[in-house]
Design goal:
homodimer; 385 residues; alpha/beta; Lyase, Ornithine Decarboxylase, Chain A, domain 1; TIM Barrel; 10 helices; 21% strand; elongated; disordered N terminus; pyridoxal phosphate (chains A, B); ornithine decarboxylase (chains A, B)
């Protein structure tokens, strides 16, 4: 996954052409909404009859939501504010699922009154809250699946064990809710469709056990995990999605409702960040590595570099010159604000303060992660092409 | 450092009394500015003739800066916005140092025109930038010191090696700048004054070598590292600071200008966050641990729980009831948004959704770290007592 410097800013997509000439005074995310639409259709082609519920948290920019509403997307919301955003752009509340398993009571009541009918849960207490504030709602139970094949494996934070999932269906029924199905997550940035196999096997076992116990499940939420291109080869979205649906079909048969929640896989490649090199230095003259400090860091948009999990490609006007290893860091006076240190980046030896740095495929999990103003640096700006 | 549940909300400081009755609709940081003033005077008493340059990044709330200006504090700024903030509250530009070693060129020019005369640097290119945009300025060179005794040891991000520091003084002189001294950082939350010894020894060696080579240094910036109370015993601020100054005096003698940059040590204990329990659950019925989800997490104010580095004390109205181990997590649909998992927290077994959770001594590095709206959750609110 080592980055090899390419011709200056090549290949020239619409975004790359735009960012080359754009004048900005702070780190700026440039988004191409037409590209979002293109990516949506690619994924939809592979997913077939499954509904796409866009994971709004990946990028809640209004223009993206507006476009997705217009082309028929459904939505996965994490909070009241995300539901309000979708509604404000004309989304049908019946097309919005409230997918956070940890919801504020007031948010559940708001969603219910707004017409949202589908909620996620993984615990008794969450079902109690839903039953009290969205009586009669449909719920799907999120299950935990072990997985270590994703680039960013998920922790145990969400979901419950299989046997508990069935207990929760019983409990939901008791509370007057409708337990309609299961959800799971294979892990963010799961690079190949084949990596879904083990997880799908495990979920199918729970699914069929629940059916055997008399629960007429009709909804399978396969979550996200659809990858974006960060330098390593991935399949085309339509190919990838079609293969996942084949794997699903083989295990679950003809499920009436299948939903998928791409976030990163839908929007990451639709944006690039314009950043600037603030300083290139060495700690001592005989150091092998240079330190390269950008005007954007972990607390101003690049939160996903935590643990060096997501490794962005970076283009500079000096690409093509000889390269050398660099430790990449952000601008804040925070020693944790280092992007890549364990695996240094190869960047041009000619790079210097004032040079532009384009962070490619940065349309997901950047702008909304940005801090309100840590160290006095303003939040990441967003420009729509 | 295991938290032991105490009597409900005891001991009752002014902040704890206030947060008990305050009605809020989202996570809220409550600040007591009188307490900031008290803490300032405590530290000042120990630091003697050293100037306190408050590290604005720790908490840039306007009311804190205003009060500190009024009682004679100086300031350490990380960016143009922090300088503007200090100036807007009446700070004398001569009392503001621009301590970020990675500065935007435009910010240097702004600072220079505003009257700021003291800048940090640790690299040739940074000196070039300062010489071009703040000609004739005073600079201090930040050196790297190895240290593993702080609760949050700093990375190698800032500073240069000792031999290079002297080369940089020569280079600064060549550029028409005034190399006036050295700075360093012992590491955040250095709990005992004695832990400064090794670092001070190392810096003193560089200091005396520079003096021997003809640099008439007159400024020593001892940085931050002053601890806050998070449950483990620490010395009173005045005792701690006095002991550090003794250690400094023994190694550096009578330095004309000494500056200290407390951030956490000045404001952490002056604030508490009002949060709410959203969900208490188990992944399976035979789990030993409960999962407790709060309405605040790593991306909405508690960034310093990364790696479980800062371990906040949490008070609930059910303190006094029997306790059991809990994994603590934030509200977002992000699997990395887990606060304490490796070392679970002991919390009341009676804790449930809707209960208030008071996060004590959370006045530093919380509000400004908060994201602009990840997952649709609004940034941490701030209320001044």
């Amino acid at each position: 996954m080592t980055y090899v410097a390419q011709g200056a800013f090549a290949p020239a997509s619409r975004i790359e052409t735009a960012v080359r000439s754009m004048v900005v005074d702070r780190p700026t995310l440039v988004l191409d909404v037409d590209r979002v639409e293109f990516q949506y259709h690619q994924l939809k082609q592979g997913l077939g009859r499954a509904h796409i519920h866009y994971a709004v948290k990946a990028n809640p920019t209004r223009e993206i939501i507006e476009r997705l509403v217009n082309i028929g997307s459904h939505f996965d919301a994490a909070s009241r504010a995300e539901i309000e955003l979708c509604l404000s752009q004309g989304a049908d509340p019946a097309d919005i699922s409230f997918g956070n398993t940890v919801k504020k009571v007031g948010d559940i009541a708001f969603a219910h009154h707004a017409g949202v009918t589908l909620f996620a849960a993984d615990a008794e207490e969450e079902l109690d809250k839903i039953a009290a504030h969205a009586p009669g709602a449909e719920v799907y139970i999120r299950v935990i699946v072990e997985n270590s094949q994703a680039d960013w494996p998920l922790s145990r934070k969400f979901g419950c064990r299989g046997e508990k999932a069935i207990d929760l269906m019983a409990y939901a029924t008791e509370l007057g809710l409708k337990p309609v199905g299961l959800s799971f997550h294979v892990g963010s940035q799961t690079k190949r469709a084949e990596m879904w196999t083990g997880v799908l096997d495990a979920v199918a076992e729970i699914w069929h056990r629940a059916q055997a116990e008399g629960y007429a499940l009709d909804l399978l939420n396969i979550g996200g995990g659809f990858p974006a291109f960060y330098g390593e080869a991935i399949d085309a979205p339509s190919t990838y999605a079609a293969r996942v649906m084949e794997l699903v079909g083989a295990r679950f048969g003809d499920v009436p409702r299948v939903m998928a929640e791409p976030g990163r896989g839908l929007v990451a490649e639709c944006g690039a960040i314009i950043a600037e090199v603030l300083l290139v230095s060495k700690k001592s003259d005989d150091d092998m590595h240079r330190w390269v400090y950008l005007d954007i860091g972990r607390f101003s948009g690049l939160a996903e570099t935590e643990g060096e999990a997501i490794r962005y490609q970076i283009a500079t006007p000096r690409d093509g010159d000889p390269v050398g290893p660099c430790i990449l860091a952000g601008p804040s006076c925070d020693s944790a604000d280092v992007l890549y240190e364990k695996r240094p980046m190869m960047l041009p030896v000619t790079l210097k303060s004032g040079d532009r740095a384009i962070i490619r495929n940065a349309g997901a999990y950047t702008s909304s992660y940005s801090s309100v103003g840590f160290n006095g640096f303003p939040p990441l700006d967003v420009v729509i092409l």
